[in-house]
Design brief:
Elements lengths: L26 E5 L7 E7 L2 E8 L2 H5 L4 E6 L2 E6 H7 E7 L7 H7 L4 E3 L2 E5 L5 H10 L4 E8 L5
Parallel strand pairs: 1-3, 1-4
Antiparallel strand pairs: 2-3, 4-5, 6-8, 6-9, 7-8
């Protein structure tokens, strides 16, 4: 499952194809590329009404849905939000020719994986801004950062 990170659904995906993934009575998050505003969609399915909540912002969906439909290669799959949250990491690329020793970086971020000029911090539902604020307050120069998803075995 997931050769890389989970991906947004393409805009051409048929919402009808997602109805079987949705449980009755619970909204299925739909991580949809190009969905500029969140959209609540009610569909009929076997056994009752289904609710889809489409958005481009995965964080928005994770805080509102038990499961989120994502793309695994070309396959659509529903993944529990708790699993996706556990995969969230913040990657920070440091911008200094002479970096602090790994021990100092681990003291600032005990859960971080420290590599060459790179920190990878597990975020869960935490805020990337908080980690970047620690970097700023300790004058740790940041060249780039991004939220990524590191797959762990289920």
């Amino acid at each position: 499952m997931f050769p890389g990170s989970p991906a947004r659904l393409r805009p051409a995906v048929s919402l009808r194809s997602l109805v079987p993934l949705a449980d009755p009575g619970a909204a299925l998050g739909v991580w949809l590329r190009g969905c500029h505003r969140p959209a609540a969609i009610r569909c009929r399915g076997p056994g009752g009404a289904r609710h889809l909540l489409a958005a481009d912002d995965l964080g928005y969906l994770l805080s509102r849905c038990r499961e989120v439909a994502v793309r695994d290669g070309e396959r659509l799959t529903a993944v529990p939000a708790a699993i996706l949250v556990g995969w969230r990491v913040l990657e920070i690329i440091l911008a200094a020719p002479c970096l602090p020793p790994p021990e100092q970086l681990r003291a600032l971020f005990p859960a971080a994986r420290v590599g060459q000029s790179r920190l990878t911090l597990p975020l869960g539902l935490g805020s990337a801004e908080e980690a970047l604020a620690v970097c700023a307050s300790t004058q740790l120069p940041v060249a780039a950062s991004r939220i990524a998803y590191r797959i762990t075995k289920r």
